[in-house]
Amino acid sequence: MKKFILLTACLILPALTCAQTAEEKGLFIAIEADKHDTGWKDQSSNLRMTLHNRQGQESFREMHNQALEVEGDGDKTLIVFDLPQDVKGTAFLSFTHATRPDDQWLFLPALKRVKRISSSNKSGPFMGSEFAYEDISSQEIDKYTYKYLKDDTIDGNDTFVIERFPQYENSGYTRQIVWLDKIKYQPLKIDFYDRKNSLLKTLSYHDYKQYLDKFWRPGKMQMTNNQNGKSTTLIWKDYKFNNNFNDRDFDNNSLQRAR
Amino acid sequence: MNFIKQKFSHSLSACLYLQALTFIIPLTAHAELSGYLVTELRYFSSGPLDSRQQENNVSFALEPEYFYQSDNTQSLTFKLFARYDQHDNERSHADIRELMWIKAADQWELRAGIGKVFWGVAESQHLVDIINQSDAVENMDLEEKLGQPMIDLSLIGQYGTFDIFVLPYFRERTFAGSKGRPRAIPYVDTDHVFYQSDKQNRHIDYAARWYKSINEWDLGLSYFNGTSRDPRLVAANNNSGETVLQPHYDLITQTGLDIQGTFDAWLWKLEVIHRSGVTPAYTAMTGGFEYSFYDIRHTGADLGVLLEYMYDNRALNSPGPFQNDILLGLRYTLNDTQSTEFLLGQIIDRHTHASSFNLEASRRMASNIKLNLEAHYFTRPDTSDPAYVYRDDDYIQAELVYYF
Fold this sequence. Notes:
The structure holds 2 protein chains of 2 kinds. Chain A is mainly beta. Helices cover about 15% and strands about 45% of the residues of chain A.
């Protein structure tokens, strides 16, 4: 009963003033971050990826995305590839779920074929980049357990430092350390530790902008692989909200029409 | 659907003014021209069975595409295809692959014009897929299709998607000419084509399909009534007294079922058709699985293992090659920057033990250049096997594709 009162109090009061275990505090920060990013309904954006190899050579990917927030479950996402040109028009539809595997379909324009694909590839590279599929999928609270580590500052921004442990199958990581901005409740940096618990990759977030007076979105993300020396830069452009998307914009027919 | 890039720029005030004018409809008018040019080389390892055929072949193809979207509910696509072949006059050909207007609404979509539709889930053969005719001079796998004139109404709701097709014009299958290779022996003479229907290629065909995805399951039920896309090939003498094969197109009714169950890294697949109108009526199926090993040893590479069984209840009376056959396949995807991929397939006839190997590989050489390699190898063909005529047609093909 005491625990219940304490938890309730923690939910009502600003989460961080309560005496808590590091695990509880970590979870509360994750819940708070989720609340800060709830209610955006839908969004669309354009994305340019630059892949850098160790020799300094670059290759490019371009895609445009649209997403629909689903209450009580994960989001729906549609990604259409624009570059490289051999995959132009290829479209990827994903229904994220909090508790069961995601539903995913791929549209191959040359064959006009929709393929239902397995979503159990979590750790493999997305489009040959340093981003794994699990890095770009929607972040649901239940996907991890959490532990608050400390407070820190990054470039003058106060952050919570939280350790989180993937609870879904086939993750390439044992743990991640997240530097979460105390004002924006958005990550500024994430360290990814591989299955052997050595530092694999570091992701940094830049140029955040606020939309609809509430939602923060990064303009740039930089993923550096500390083991192979490769890196990938993401530049996000043309964020748009209030597109009036509904389920029809995320079905088999709209996947085939996507351009 | 206003995620489409606005390729024109305008001032913020003008944008706000126009947005106010159009209220909810976003400014998404958008047009683009794209396509590819491909150079193809084929090398045959043995001399031809027919002296009119050659050992090497060069060919070029072009596929430009124009796309226009007036707003987020309407679009027009115009895609042309043309090939020039060094030796085969039949393979030098052009086609309107797509000239399609699409109108989308909340509960329905209408497609009218010329286009392509794919149904099904299997890899070894596409039994259920019946709307489009194969452009068989393009590739032996019959996966290249000719543009099909159609009106397609999609009804979309909680019940899934229900499509009704009216197909007002029939496309004859293309076949390699006398100088073409690989090809059947004797060759198929497309100058003399026979139809069961008096209306010939003007016979109006109808089709319908219901599709729904329920959690791990993707289900399709389909119906087709009209001119068969698969001709019966009948040996006859042509005007010059040479024995040739002549295509006969029957009127058929086909019902089809396609199911895929997706469980973690397993894809379970089944396609079944029943076709009547031909003698005898028959049932055919393809069933199997694909299992993938992802991110092997943290290299990022994937290995997929495919096994499919093909069955036709006409057994050896079946005119097709797959009555009691097994496909074994390996799909190796490096997931590297160049998107390097390999697909190795072996099809084994369980009755004659004849088998054929296919290897496909591709790699991006530059942002807009891709290299595709294909090898086809036929082993131990039995004289009773439909693939016997291809016994000397092993070949390697290289394609260099330039995208614009």
